[in-house]
Design brief:
The protein is an all-alpha fold. The chain contains ten helices and no strands. It folds into two domains: 80 residues, Orthogonal Bundle (Arc Repressor Mutant, subunit A), CATH 1.10.10.60; 149 residues, Tetracycline Repressor, domain 2 (Orthogonal Bundle), CATH 1.10.357.10. The protein is 77% helix and 0% strand.
Length: 231
């Protein structure tokens, strides 16, 4: 027969176990809720870029966006206080995603040529892998919608992200022009290369990996010639 003391110990252990179990279940639910909120936010950002670029910012309503994203309209305001704030967040998110995937941390063992070639290849492949984001961002920026995002500091943050890519490419181009026999202003060469690569998503439609690889190789050959780099 179990003594009262042992029974108390068993009950305490069971209570402790049940408390830990309940706590772990609550944490799991909270993690799931956070993931759901994060997924909804990401879905809204992509949907906003796509919808605003297709229908126009002024013509698109939050109700349109909710239907486009497959959620209820009031849920949008759990993430964004206004359509202008959503536009700003979407543009900023798109640029940060681009910079992170295209620039990333540089391998210290890479030469300047290898570093530039890698960035430019990732620039093309980002547009091929994310056609909706890439095309929508270009369309929205071409329509000068940056002033519609609200706060000046937020506009500045987006402009700063826009400059990150060009600054890195310009730095590498300047070093390579200095090393080569090319007699040209490195800023002009850098701008020409960046613009050329930026246009890929506007005309090219991927049909196969082989075709994509050929495109990457052709574009690098053009950039290499501008820089006077041997094969």
């Amino acid at each position: 027969m179990t003594s009262p003391t042992n029974q108390t110990k068993v009950l305490r252990k069971r209570a402790g176990y049940e408390a830990r179990l309940a706590e772990s279940e609550e944490l799991a639910i909270e993690r799931e809720n956070r993931a759901t909120r994060s997924d909804t936010r990401a879905r809204l950002l992509v949907a906003a870029l796509d919808l605003f670029s297709k229908n126009g910012f002024e013509a698109s309503t939050m109700r349109d966006l909710a239907q486009f994203a497959g959620i209820k309209a009031p849920a949008i305001y759990n993430h964004f206080k206004s359509k202008e704030a959503l536009l700003g967040e979407a543009l900023l998110w798109a640029m940060e995603d681009f910079n992170e995937r295209v620039l990333g941390p540089r391998d210290p063992r890479e030469s300047n040529v290898e570093a530039l070639k890698g960035i430019l290849e990732r620039h093309i492949r980002y547009q091929l892998d994310n056609p909706v984001i890439a095309r929508a961002f270009d369309i929205l920026m071409a329509h000068n919608l940056l002033q519609r995002v609200g706060e000046i500091t937020f506009q500045q943050a987006i402009q700063d992200r826009l400059r990150v890519y060009l600054r890195e490419v310009t730095k590498l181009v300047s070093l390579l022009v200095e090393e080569s026999s090319v007699k040209a202003d490195y800023r002009i060469v850098s701008s020409a290369i960046s613009t050329m690569y930026d246009q890929v998503g506007r005309w090219y439609v991927s049909t196969s990996k082989a075709a994509d690889d050929d495109l990457v190789a052709t574009y690098w050959d053009l950039a290499r010639r501008m820089l006077g780099i041997d094969r």
